[in-house]
Amino acid sequence: MFGVNDVYFWDPGNNRNQGETWISTNFTLATLTSGTTNYQAKSISGVDIYLNNNSNAVYTLDVFSRLLMHEIGHGLGLCDAESNISSSFIDDNFNPNDPVNTLNNSWASLVDVYDPKSSSLSVYNIGNATPVSGVDLLMESNGLGISVGNPLGNPNLLTNDEYGTRQFLYPFIASNTQEPTTVPEPSSFILFIFAVLLMNRKRLLKRK
Fold first, then answer.
1. How many H-runs (helices) and E-runs (strands) does the chain carry?
2. Phi first, then psi: what are they for 194, rounded to 5°?
3. Percent of residues, the chain, with pLDDT higher than 70
4. What single-letter DSSP state applies at residue 42?
5. Between 36 and 155, the higher pLDDT residue
6. Nearest-5° angle of CA 196, CA 144, CA 64?
7. How far, in Å, CA of 108 to CA of 105, rounded?
8. How many CA atoms lie within 13 A of 116 on its CB side?
């Protein structure tokens, strides 16, 4: 993780609170966290996270924490929600006419842990930002999901969609057949340790 004042998406003098994550990947036969072996997948081999440290880019602790967790999400393989940035937003039933219910429902239990790509999920276009209030995703690049319903400092800022994507990327076998409606939030410290372990280099994933 680096603090820089001049990188791909900002220059010296920029005063925005923003980050940028570059990821190197390769197609390989992987062993999934559910135990499946020889699974053809794109594996992350290295990650660099850059945060704007221009002297006039001033962060509060809550803003810094939210931004860092968003970038760590990229380091773990989660894409931005907006279709003008990413074309890989996964969901089970997104309906633009009912975004609150279809983006807030839990679908982690629908992931086939032995073969995630065969799960009953699709890639959706949700527009340049989530379309209505009440849908507040950490992985929104535009606003980081900050809202009245998901304020800065919220200790449980991850949504069901982020947990579902986590289950898709790092599938685990639940001890029972019924997935909880909302999965308990992993601690920020654990996510930070993941980021440190993944550090290295290259391909641009996103911007703010």
1. 4, 6
2. -55, -45
3. 81
4. E
5. 36
6. 50
7. 9
8. 26
Helix or strand holding residue 29 (H, E): strand 19-30
Retrieve residue 135's tokens: 């849908």
Q: What own/partner pairs with CB < 8 Å and gap ≥ 24 does 158-162 have?
A: 158/185, 158/186, 159/103, 159/104, 160/104, 160/105, 160/106, 160/107, 160/108, 161/81, 161/90, 161/91, 161/103, 161/104, 161/107, 161/137, 162/73, 162/78, 162/137, 162/138
What would the pLDDT profile of 56-93 be if each residue is shown by its tens digit?
Answer: 999 999 999 999 999 999 999 998 888 778 777 899 99
Q: Give CA 147 to chain center in angstroms.
A: 17
Query: Which amino acid, 182?
Result: T
Quick check: 160 and 106 in contact, CB under 8 A?
yes
CA–CA gap between residue 197 and residue 62 (Å, rounded): 23
Q: What is the dihedral of CA 67, 50, 43, 189, to 10 degrees?
A: -50
Strand order across the beta sheet in which 39-52 lies:
2-4, 39-52, 19-30, 204-206
d(CA 30, CA 32): 6
